[in-house]
Structure to design on (305 residues):
């Protein structure tokens, strides 16, 4: 096995972590959208944490190892159109995904605060925070950008 | 850089295979976390029900897409091969054994959710975690091609 094949394997595992994290966030988006009780929302916090760790590891792994591969592999260059397209899409997905996370984090913060204050019943404000319209739009855009990266990586237009 | 240059006709089955595998990893990871967190007691029923639904409605369809994509791609890349490379020899057994264990996990998670059985839920989580490790090894093999 060559060093490049190790890089490719780790790049692929990073991509799996990234797409896996997006899947976890979709599960969260769907699971919390009808919740309005702090303890129920808080039950989903471990999923949010795992998703956050995976998205950071996946995002950094894909970009660092991807650019590294584009430099070391003879067939590809960092200035190839499909590589630049992937980097631009990665940046869009990263920033929009971060903003989506901030929107949903408001629900978890509110649930924690309510629990600390001893309020455990239905909470209209929490119900609203669990369905952030902007957060959902950001998440759809981030997911679409990552799907486009996958298409770009497989078809490699112009390569 | 998911793969080197290949015939265009391989791309769609490869997309199905790769996308299915990556969604499968995320869905199984989410289900495992939900099963393990449910053992703490807080909102246990909610989390066990979520884990079962994730396995059934997320992981199982993703597994089918991944496995169909793999077979389709294999038929194109190795149409008459009787001597498969090592990475194929790693990937297929892990995928097939993982599918069986995933099915058992779904059944256990379903019973755990329906009958409120904490230990069955944990067993489903442990089995699914084992398949997750196996699939990560398979992803490594697909990339590194040892």
């Amino acid at each position: 096995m060559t060093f490049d094949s190790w890089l490719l394997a780790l790049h692929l595992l990073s991509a799996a972590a990234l797409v896996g994290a997006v899947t976890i966030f979709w599960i969260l988006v769907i699971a919390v959208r009808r919740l309005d009780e702090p303890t129920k929302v808080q039950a989903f916090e471990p999923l949010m944490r795992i998703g956050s760790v995976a998205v950071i590891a996946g995002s950094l792994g894909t970009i660092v190892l991807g650019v590294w591969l584009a430099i070391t592999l003879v067939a590809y260059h960092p200035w190839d159109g499909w590589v630049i397209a992937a980097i631009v899409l990665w940046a869009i997905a990263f920033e929009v995904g971060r903003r989506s996370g901030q929107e949903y984090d408001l629900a978890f913060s509110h649930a924690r605060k309510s629990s600390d204050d001893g309020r455990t019943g239905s909470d209209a404000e929490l119900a609203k925070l669990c369905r952030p319209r902007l957060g959902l739009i950001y998440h759809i855009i981030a997911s679409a950008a990552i799907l486009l990266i996958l298409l770009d990586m497989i078809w490699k237009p112009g390569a | 850089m998911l793969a080197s240059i290949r015939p265009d006709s391989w791309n769609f089955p490869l997309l199905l295979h790769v996308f299915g595998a990556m969604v499968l990893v995320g869905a199984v990871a989410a289900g495992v976390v939900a099963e393990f967190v449910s053992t703490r007691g807080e909102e246990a029923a909610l989390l066990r029900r979520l884990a079962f639904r994730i396995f059934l409605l997320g992981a199982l369809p993703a597994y089918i897409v991944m496995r169909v994509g793999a077979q389709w791609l294999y038929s194109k890349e190795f149409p008459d091969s009787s001597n498969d490379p090592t990475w194929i020899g790693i990937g297929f057994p892990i995928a097939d054994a993982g599918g069986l264990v995933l099915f058992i996990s779904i059944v256990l998670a379903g019973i755990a959710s329906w009958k409120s059985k904490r230990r069955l839920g944990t067993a489903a989580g442990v089995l699914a975690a084992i398949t997750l490790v196996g699939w990560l090894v398979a992803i490594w093999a697909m990339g590194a091609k040892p």
